[in-house]
Amino acid sequence: MSTDHQRIIRLVEQGHIPGDKLEQALSVSGVYPDSRAWRTFIDHLFLWLGGLALAFAVLFFVAYNWSELGRLFRFALVEVLVIAAIVGYWKLGTERMAGKVALLGATICLGVLLALYGQTYQTGADPWQLFFNWSLLILPWVVVGRFAPLWLVWLMLLNLSTLLYFQTFPGAFGMLLSYWDTGMYWMLFLLNTLALVLWEWAATRWSFMNQRWAIRLVALGSGYTITWLALISIVENALTEPAGLLAGIIWLIWLAGMGGIYRYRIRDLFMLTGGSLSAIVVVTTFLARHMLEGDPVGAFLLLALVVMGAGSGSLIWLKRLYREWQT
Prior knowledge:
Layout: H1 3-13, H2 22-28, H3 35-64, H4 71-92, H5 97-121, H6 127-145, H7 148-168, H8 174-177, H9 183-203, H10 212-235, H11 242-265, H12 269-291, H13 296-326
Helix pairs in contact: 3-5, 4-5, 5-6, 6-7, 7-9, 9-10, 10-11, 10-12, 11-12, 12-13
């Protein structure tokens, strides 16, 4: 719900605007989009869909016609499109949406070019190197582009390269990060948590980074990995071991940090909802791990009551916070 929408709702609740005039007030204030706003939205939607379709069409065209296309033609096709997209970004305007779509298309085509090079010359490089080198090469474009979705693409490539690296070298950093070879989850947690902290800081300095939907996606990556690590330590019954205890402590610190920051400083209900969900999942798993060894019927009944009670309590707390923030 937008700030203007919330302000109109408060005026209605305070009696300054009659209830039957709510729709008219929302239309006059611009909360409800008019025909011009809808045209702009549809124009941007088709622009994005067209740009992405064109970029991925290059990949599918080269892959489908691999045997019919010569080596020189394949490279020339992709390289020309990369150059054309960069020129389009410059000609269309660096601050216009069309220019940013062109830059995103160039980013995707560059990945196609790297994959084409590796497939043509059979360099023997591991898959993680493709995504890591891709992220390094597009970093100048990401910085110059000043566009939050490009930063998300860059972060996604780092996540993919980390994931593929640990699939190639399963024992990498195992002794340092975890007892159960969960180094991949620790690295992903550290990467996304650091990205979340830096993104929140950047959002206070540059307006183009102040995109809550993008920040929330990064927070999902951080929350998912630390919650999974906490669940592993519970399922493996390893909370008494150093690695399991560390996972539990880090999860508690993460949960307290998310609650404190997004309760008192930034005020984001989505983040608090994610933290509540993580707490419910971890606590329920902990209880199930120790209760299902006895009477499973009674344990399932009690666990159901715990989940319903925790979910209801979280909902009441979040609604109370919302009303508190509106006053």
